[in-house]
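Try this one yourself first.
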């Protein structure tokens, strides 16, 4: 079995097809042989039955009496009425007694070997009954034998069964066996040719059927060797078999991997660009502080305090940027940071509003929240809503108002800031993209990207649009229900 499993798939398929055909051919051949054998034997049995149908003549008593006296020369005694059987030149006819003596017809080609079954039958003959068996004559030739009761005609014209004798009829099986042997040889040859042909056909079919698998294997090996994810396997769009589905899945997988690699490359490039600025500023300030210590010329206290404040701000910005990158990378990888569960969106918005009011105490934030339950990661969803509110707080004028509404699964956040120019709207969810007016403000440019990815993973959508009278409306639509499921704790 281990050696079979080590064979190539096409060889295994060819062997399985050949084995299945061989089994079927063998079953059909054996069945056919036995059917033909039964038919030939039935014909012989009918012939023997027709020969044994006539009762014997009136001189049966003297024949039986002399049968034992002529045992050394059985051909000298003729069973009664043997003339009716003489036309069948190669047929056997002999009479046996209960003590095992026999008389053979002169036209018989030989004497049939007598068995215990025959003598037992002669001792207890049954009317209209006979037994068939395969036997042989004294020369060893195979014979089909019928042993029947010895019936004869009495002087008064009635027919009776002799109580101590039986008649044996036989026909040679040489011709029948020769026919069966020839049939077996023909079936063996035809079956062998069929098995070989089936194996060859199975190998051809396996090669033709597995050609797409070979192409897929070559493509996978090419990707493993070169890391080229642009390769695609040609697929018949009208086909929907397993090979076509596998090829489509492979093409979809390589396309997804290529997109993921491109996104990863772009993320690394953008992250490196964004990290360069705070790191350069940090390095400059720290080198300035270090040099002042090395040369023994201390920086004035006011300037030193300003440097330390700048270093602290840059480290805070760097930490926020790294946190945003971690959140975005986990989101891209599709690995949830928390367990997905049923979340009360109104409670999550309330928690985010408390944080937003702390960051913009001079602003007026109004809220009208109606119950809505969604399936999401609680911390990721709260982070996305906090990012939306942070943007509203960041761009709202001092003393401005922010209106927050949750109704029918749609959360809207409206600020009264300067708004977003229409030409910038297509880019607001791009990573690290910041409008020219916002580059002087703190931030990494990843907040709205995190919002878009989180909402997308929840099955919803987020949009930004200008508001009438100025400002921006951020709308988040999430699938859910106004009532909690029964199993919600």
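Now uncover the answer:
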């Amino acid at each position: 079995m281990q050696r079979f499993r080590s064979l190539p798939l096409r060889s295994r398929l060819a062997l399985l097809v050949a084995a299945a055909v061989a089994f079927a051919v063998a079953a059909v051949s054996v069945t056919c042989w036995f059917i033909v054998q039964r038919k030939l034997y039935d014909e012989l049995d009918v012939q023997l039955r027709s020969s044994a149908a006539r009762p014997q003549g009136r001189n049966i008593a003297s024949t039986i009496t002399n049968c034992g006296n002529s045992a050394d020369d059985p051909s000298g005694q003729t069973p009664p009425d043997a003339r009716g059987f003489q036309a069948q030149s190669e047929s056997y006819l002999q009479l046996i007694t209960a003590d095992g003596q026999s008389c053979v017809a002169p036209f018989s080609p030989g004497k049939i070997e007598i068995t215990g079954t025959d003598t037992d039958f002669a001792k207890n003959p049954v009317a209209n009954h006979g037994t068939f068996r395969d036997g042989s004559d004294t020369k060893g030739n195979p014979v089909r034998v019928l042993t029947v009761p010895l019936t004869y005609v009495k002087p008064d014209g009635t027919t009776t069964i002799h109580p101590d004798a039986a008649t044996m009829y036989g026909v040679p099986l040489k011709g029948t066996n020769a026919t069966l042997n020839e049939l077996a040889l023909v079936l063996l040859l035809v079956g062998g040719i069929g098995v070989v042909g089936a194996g060859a056909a199975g190998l051809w079919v396996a090669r033709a059927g597995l050609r797409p698998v070979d192409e897929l294997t070559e493509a996978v090996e090419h990707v493993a060797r070169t890391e080229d994810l642009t390769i695609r396997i040609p697929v018949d769009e009208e086909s929907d078999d397993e090979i076509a589905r596998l090829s489509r899945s492979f093409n979809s997988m390589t396309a997804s991997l290529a997109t993921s690699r491109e996104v990863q490359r772009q993320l690394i490039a953008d992250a490196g660009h964004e990290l360069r600025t705070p790191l350069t500023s940090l390095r400059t300030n720290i080198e300035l502080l270090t040099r002042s210590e090395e040369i023994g010329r201390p920086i004035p206290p006011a300037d030193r305090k300003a440097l330390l404040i700048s270093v602290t701000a840059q480290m805070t910005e760097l930490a926020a940027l790294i946190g945003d990158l971690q959140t975005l990378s986990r989101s891209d990888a599709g690995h949830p940071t928390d367990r997905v569960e049923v979340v009360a969106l109104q409670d999550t918005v309330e928690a985010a509003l408390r944080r937003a009011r702390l960051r913009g105490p001079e602003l007026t934030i109004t809220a009208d929240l109606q119950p809505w339950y969604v399936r999401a990661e609680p911390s990721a969803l709260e982070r996305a809503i906090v990012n939306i509110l942070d943007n509203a707080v960041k761009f709202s004028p001092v003393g401005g108002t922010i209106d927050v509404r949750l109704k029918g699964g749609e959360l809207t956040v409206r600020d009264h800031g300067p708004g977003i120019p229409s030409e910038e709207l297509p880019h607001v969810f791009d990573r690290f993209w910041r409008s020219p007016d916002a580059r002087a403000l703190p931030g990494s440019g990843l907040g709205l990207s995190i919002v878009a990815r989180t909402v997308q993973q929840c099955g919803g959508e987020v949009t930004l649009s200008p508001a009438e009278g100025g400002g921006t409306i951020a709308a988040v639509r999430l699938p859910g229900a106004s009532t909690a499921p029964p199993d919600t704790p």
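Discussion: Residues 58-172 form a domain with the Beta-Lactamase fold (CATH 3.30.450). The longest helix spans residues 242-295.
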